[in-house]
Amino acid sequence: MGPALLITLLPVFSVVSAEVLQEVFGYLGSNVTLSSRATPPWNFSKIEWSIFPNSTWIATYRSGRKNTERVDQFKGRLSLNTTSGDLTIHGLISQDALEYTVLLFHQSITVHKIRLKVLQRPVEPSIQMIYTKVQEGRCWVLLRCSSQDEGVDLSWELKPPSDSVYRMTGPGKQGAVLISFSNKEKTEVICTANKTTAKVSAAFTSQCGSSACPRLREGLCFLFGFIAGLLIFLIYCFKDRIGILT
């Protein structure tokens, strides 16, 4: 029915087809808007969104009326913008990963194709305090950030920035480790997990207690704290292999 309609309208409309297939990413349970890529202002006489090679219509705008309840899979989950021609899919499910085609009827017929990929959003990473110490009002903190997801890149951000920051990556799923030496009483630490086109962050507020080192030994305390924190981190990472801290 779709192709026959195009043939019928060919004497009236010129057909402009977008040959490049646009790839769009969406995430399970979230919403995604498929752009018609129309250049405003357009006054559409018809808008037709379809799926599959046989042009199964899922959303249409004809004679001033919208219909987004054509296919059971999408019932109650579609919003069609008749001004822009954009189609929004609400509450994405894995079955929505399809190829979509939109026909825009204006002074010409514009065809645009989109391939939608539905992904699992990364799990929020977790931040664990491993070690903390204070020396002359300066706070020494050892933190570990880990993620349940495979193939993520972990990064740190501190607010306000720390005087000294050391970043390491542990084996397996141990993730990223931050060693910070700051003169701030409280520091907000943010660990972000990046995966493909999505990222998710976790925040942690680090707070130290009172000073534990004499002024004249501040340098030695810093060195001792660094070595102690590093040893604790290594022991924590390899505890399963050496059979301690279980």
How would you describe the overall organization of this protein?
The chain is mainly β. It is 13% helix and 46% strand. The protein has 3 helices and 17 strands. It has helices spanning 2-9, 218-237, 239-242; strands at residues 14-17, 22-27, 32-34, 46-51, 56-62, 65-67, 78-80, 87-89, 99-105, 108-119, 126-135, 138-146, 153-159, 164-169, 176-182, 186-195, 198-207. Strands 1, 2, 4, 5, 6, 9 and 10 form a 7-stranded mixed β-sheet that branches. A 4-stranded antiparallel β-sheet has the order 11-12-15-14, covered by helices on one side. A hairpin with a 2-residue loop joins strand 11 and strand 12 (138-146). The longest helix has 20 residues, at 218-237. The radius of gyration is 28 Å and the shape is elongated. Residues 1-13, 210-218 and 242-246 have low confidence and may be disordered.
User: Could you tell me the strand content as a percent range?
Assistant: over 45%
Strand element count = 17
**Average pLDDT, to the nearest integer?**
76
What are the secondary-structure elements, in order, as H or E? HEEEEEEEEEEEEEEEEEHH
Structural class per helix/strand content?
A: mainly beta
Distance between the termini: 67 Å
What integer value in Å does the Rg equal? 28 Å
Low-confidence stretches: 1-13, 210-218, 242-246
Helix content: 10-25%
The largest sheet, given as strand count, sense and whether it forms a barrel, is: 7 strands, mixed
Tally of separate helices: 3
Q: What shape does the CA trace take?
A: elongated
